[in-house]
Amino acid sequence: MESCWAGCLGDCSKKLSREHLVSESLFLGDAVRVQGFPWCKERPKEIGLSGLTAKILCDRHNNALSSIDTAGKEFFSTMREMRRLANVRRTMKLRPWNVVEYSINGPDLERWFLKILVNLCCDRDYPIGRVSAVRGRPSEQLVRVAFGLEQFEGRAGLYFVVRAGMQVDSADRISFAPLIKHRVHIEGGLFGFRGLRLLLFLEPEGPPSPLSGLFLDGEDLGQCQLNFHNKQIRENSGKYRSQLLRFRW
Ligand SMILES: [Zn+2]
Predict the structure, then answer these.
(1) Over 60: is that where the pLDDT of 202 sits?
(2) pLDDT band at 64 (very low <50, low <70, confident <90, very high)
(3) Which residue of 17, 32, 51, 102 pairs with 245 in a disulfide if CB–CB is 3.0 to 4.6 A?
C-alpha cells in the first residue's frame, strides 16, 4: 500500500505527493544509474527520471523538506560552475588567479543525501538502517535526522571518497549504489556525480575503511580515502589556486 515514509512523525497530510525521487531540476541528464540491488546486481541499470516518481511522501512532509532540496540544488550548481570556470581558465594564460570562493551548508547537504537515499531505496528490497524492521522503509531515527529533528550520531554521515588523479567525468549523470550489510539491511549509499564520489553512511560506527570490493562507475573504491565531513574542495588551475569550496559544519 502506498504510504508516506515519514509516517512515524505522525502528522501526515491526507494526500500523497507525486515525488520525484531525485529532484528533476538538478540534472541536465535524464537518468540515474543504479547498481547493487538484487535486480541490478550484475550491471548498472539506468532509470529514466520520468520513471523516478513515486507516491512515497505526503504533501506536508514533502513540503517540509523543500529547504534541503535547495541545499542539494546549490551543491550541484556549484559543482557545475566550478567545472565551467576550470575549463575556461585552462585555456587562459597561466597566472595567479582571483580565487573564487563558494560556501555550502554541510548538514543540510547531508540531510539532502539522506532524503535521496531513502527515496531510491524506498519500497525496495531491504530495511533502511539497522534498526528498521520494515523492508523498504527507514528507521524512525533516520526519518528524524532527515527532518532535522535529530542529528547523525558518531561517524554516521557524509564522506567524500577521494583518490589522487581520480577521473573527472563531465557528464551530468548521477550514479547510486546501496551498501547492503549482510544482505539484511541498507547501511549506506554511494553517489557519483561528475567524477565526485560521496558516501552517506547511516550507522554510528562509521564505514569500513578502505571500501574494499566496492566499485562505482568503474572506480575501485578500495583504493580511495574516506574524508568525513570534508571541509573544503580546492581546485588549482596550473600551479595556482583557482577555486575554493568550503563546507560549513
Ligand atoms: Zn507524511
Answers:
(1) yes
(2) very high
(3) 102
Distance 58 CA to ligand 1 centre (A): 4
Q: Which residues contact 65 (CB under 8 A, 6 or more apart)?
A: 57, 115, 146, 147
Q: Is the pTM of this model over 0.90?
A: yes
In a domain, 2, yes or no: no
Q: Which residues constitute the domain of residue 188?
A: 7-248
Instruction: Provide the domain count of the chain.
Output: 1
What's the average model confidence in pLDDT over 118-129? 90
CB atoms within 10 A of CB 6: 25
- What's the gap in Å between 98 CA and the centre of ligand 1? 47
For residue 32 the three cell numbers come to 540515474
Phi–psi pair at 77, nearest 5 degrees: -70, -30
Around ion ligand 1, which residues have CB less than 5 A away? 4, 6, 12, 58, 61
